Amino acid sequence: MYRFAVYGKGGIGKSTACSALSCAFAEKGMKVMQIGCDPKADSTLYLHGGERIPTMLDTLRQKRDDATLDDLIFTGYRGIVCAEAGGPTPGLGCAGRGIAAAFEALDQRDVFEIVQPDLVMYDVLGDVVCGGFAMPIREGYADQVFIVTSGENMSIYAAANIAMAVENFRQRGYAQLGGLILNRRNVPDEYEKVKTLAEDLNTVILADLPRDDHISDAQDTGRGVMEVYPDCAYAQGIRELAGRMLER
Length: 248
Prior knowledge:
The protein is of the alpha/beta class. The chain has a single domain (2-247), classed as Rossmann fold, CATH 3.40.50.300. 42% of the residues lie in helices and 18% in strands. The protein is built from 11 helices and 8 strands. The chain has helices spanning 14-27, 56-63, 69-72, 95-108, 111-115, 135-138, 153-170, 190-200, 213-219, 225-228, 233-247; strands at residues 2-8, 32-37, 74-75, 81-84, 119-125, 144-149, 176-183, 205-209. It has an 8-stranded mixed β-sheet with strand order 3-4-2-5-1-6-7-8, with helices on both faces. The longest helix has 18 residues, at 153-170.
């Protein structure tokens, strides 16, 4: 089972990339599971026609121990098995602790033994200062971590912090950094800035994804770019990225 975690600064296009990658892996005939670890719970939105699936935390609050695995996971486009951790009521509770509770609930219900995915994608907010958001790394759920970044200063800063956290846990035998994913924002010297970051982190740029209006056009219909515009430049870049991730 391949186990990938994709991190990045909020708003960098991480969830779009995750969903597109899940589609690319599913196109290869793999059984894919995508777990959203962002309180916004929108990781799998466009794998379900623009409709939000119930979050694990909301379901657990309502049903507690009576919640079954079928209450927590849902099948979306191309048979991708989807789950959204969700988060606490705004202003109350800790989102990171919520992720830990959601993961525990899946473990208690033997999700991987029952679903038997070929590949699991964790879509994680880049706030790894919080231990909850680092859980896919520190608890050994993921083997490889990929960081989505642009050439914007705050995105690069977040990517460097994430890489530092990955390195800390790699030394303990957990996940390692698989590479950077450049999701372009068309800022000046963008590739050069991200290349410098990759060199500083002793890693590589696995993909240079173009800024593509087909993404927003597809999302306006409630669907993902891989479904609506499978031949666009972004979709082709995602497929190439998926191949490189499997090679690593």
